[in-house]
């Protein structure tokens, strides 16, 4: 049973470009969470999605950031017009249900570097 | 906004010594998870505690959830170099679906 898959593992973008980060949840999991980790810090919640629905986006920056989890295919975190402050590790986690008594399993992350 | 504070931020000990990491909040959490993260990898779940006062043991690791479900501790007995890593606590809100993470404790066990 494959774990949470994220790609790419490393992404380099120049300021102003777009970054697309992909997350495939564990088999049977329909709940996806995105977190951001700045260097030497803990993880910060960004957004929680179910298939075709955004449930909680309270941690998402108001501009330039968007997320989706289509009926088919991976979840996508999209950052438009990246700036240097967007450089961070972005982690995706999945769980079988949205109840937090069910643990979240994390992917290996995508490390975004904005030059 | 709920906050979790971890202490210490960094801990360096010799192999065979014991260590304790603390995770504190003024808020109540419905459950609390402890993760360990290696450089360049995602967090790996170690344990989930749900009930106030709960104690769980995982080999040389002992996890405790405070009676009021506001704090937790991780104790490692006879630490080994393989225990080196970043330890993160994360609390789940009673009515929410997101995890609030502490800032992490970086543990270095020297041989």
Summarize the structure.
Chain A contains no helices and 11 strands. With 115 residues, chain A is mainly β.
Task: Write up this protein.
Chain A has 115 residues and is mainly beta. Chain A has no helices and eleven strands. With 111 residues, chain B is mostly beta strands. Chain B has no helices and eleven strands. The chains are: A mainly beta (115), B mainly beta (111). The interface between A and B is medium-sized, with 29 and 27 residues.
Radius of gyration of chain A: 13 Å
What characteristic shape of chain B results from the CA principal axes? Answer: globular
Order of helices and strands of chain A: EEEEEEEEEEE
- For the secondary structure, the number of strands of chain B is 11
List the helices and strands and how they pair.
The complex is a heterodimer of chains A (115) and B (111).
Chain A: E1 5-7, E2 10-13, E3 19-24, E4 31-37, E5 43-50, E6 53-56, E7 65-68, E8 75-79, E9 88-95, E10 105-106, E11 110-114
Chain B: E1 5-7, E2 10-14, E3 19-24, E4 31-37, E5 44-49, E6 55-58, E7 61-65, E8 71-76, E9 85-92, E10 99-101, E11 105-110
Parallel strand pairs in B: 2-11
Antiparallel strand pairs in B: 1-3, 3-8, 4-5, 4-9, 6-7, 7-8, 9-10, 9-11
Question: Can you give keywords for this protein?
Answer:
heterodimer, A: mainly beta, 11 strands, globular, B: 111 residues, 6-stranded mixed beta sheet, 5-stranded antiparallel beta sheet
């Amino acid at each position: 049973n494959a774990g949470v898959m994220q790609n790419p593992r490393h992404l380099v973008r120049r300021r102003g470009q777009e970054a697309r980060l992909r997350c495939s949840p564990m088999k049977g999991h329909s709940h996806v969470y995105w977190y951001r980790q700045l260097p030497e810090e803990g993880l910060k919640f960004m957004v929680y999605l179910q298939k075709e629905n955004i449930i909680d986006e309270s941690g998402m920056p108001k501009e330039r950031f968007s997320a989706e989890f289509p009926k088919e295919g991976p979840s996508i975190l999209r950052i438009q017009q990246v700036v240097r402050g967007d450089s961070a590790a972005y982690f995706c986690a999945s769980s079988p249900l949205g109840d937090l008594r069910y643990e979240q399993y994390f992917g290996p992350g995508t490390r975004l570097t904005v030059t | 906004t709920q906050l979790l504070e971890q202490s210490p931020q960094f801990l360096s000990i010799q192999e065979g010594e014991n260590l304790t990491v603390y995770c504190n909040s003024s808020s109540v959490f419905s459950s609390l998870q402890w993760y360990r993260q290696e450089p360049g990898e995602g967090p790996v779940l170690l344990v989930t505690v749900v009930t106030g006062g709960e104690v769980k043991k995982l080999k040389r690791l002992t996890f405790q959830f405070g009676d009021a479900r506001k704090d937790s501790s991780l104790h490692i007995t006879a630490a080994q170099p393989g225990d080196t890593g970043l330890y993160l606590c994360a609390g789940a809100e009673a009515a929410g679906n997101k995890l609030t993470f502490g800032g992490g404790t970086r543990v270095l066990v020297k041989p």
